[in-house]
Design a protein that fits this description.
about 40% helix, about 190 residues, 4-stranded mixed sheet, 4 strands, alpha+beta, globular
């Protein structure tokens, strides 16, 4: 093991592509989350995926490689640093999911809300995201409790109360789901 007290692990989420570039610039000063070696991380390309609307490829993050080549002490594994607006394994962005959840809580059917907010994306993706969001409620509540206590909510639906908690905990941001990933460095949908 090659641990140094001054090394920190790279972030899992960053808010912008400028922060991705900064993460690459500081890669040698960061420690690999797998083997805890400092000074072995190097840039290993971008993570690209399809845009939410259209077929063009967009940047979703950056990959860092813990180099084990040329007598380096690294482990040979990669680390992903993602943009905070990205949902893992989905082309849908966090803002779309947040607007979708708010529309359903406001009274729209899931089908109508998805077709209005995410036009062009398959309806089955909307249903899958909805089920993942419902299944992650206890995880999300536990994570949000580290930021603030839940506000009193007159809403009878548990998801409506959760969305109120998101807004209360991460209020100055334009998308609370993105701010959750960036601030807590955890995936929104585990």
């Amino acid at each position: 093991m090659c641990r140094l007290a001054s090394c920190r692990q790279p972030p899992r989420f960053v808010p912008s592509t400028g922060e991705l570039d900064e993460c690459l610039r500081l890669a040698k000063l960061q420690q690999c989350p797998h083997c805890k070696c400092c000074g072995t991380l190097i840039g290993h390309g971008f993570l690209r995926g399809y845009a939410e609307h259209g077929s063009e490829r967009v940047i979703r993050g950056r990959r860092l490689f813990c180099s084990d080549r040329f007598l380096q002490r690294g482990c040979g594994r990669t680390v992903a640093v993602l943009l905070d607006c990205v949902l893992r394994a989905f082309t849908v962005r966090t803002r779309t999911l947040f607007e979708f959840a708010n529309a359903v809580v406001a009274g729209d059917s899931r089908r109508a809300a998805w077709q209005r907010i995410a036009s062009g994306l398959s309806l089955s993706s909307g249903y899958r995201l909805w089920q993942r969001l419902l299944g992650a409620q206890s995880y999300l509540r536990t994570q949000l409790l580290s930021l603030c206590v839940p506000p009193p909510s007159p809403a009878p639906l548990p998801l409506a109360q959760l969305l109120d908690h998101f807004v209360a905990a991460l209020s100055p941001s334009s998308c609370p789901f993105s701010a959750f990933q960036s601030r807590l460095q955890r995936f929104l949908l585990p």
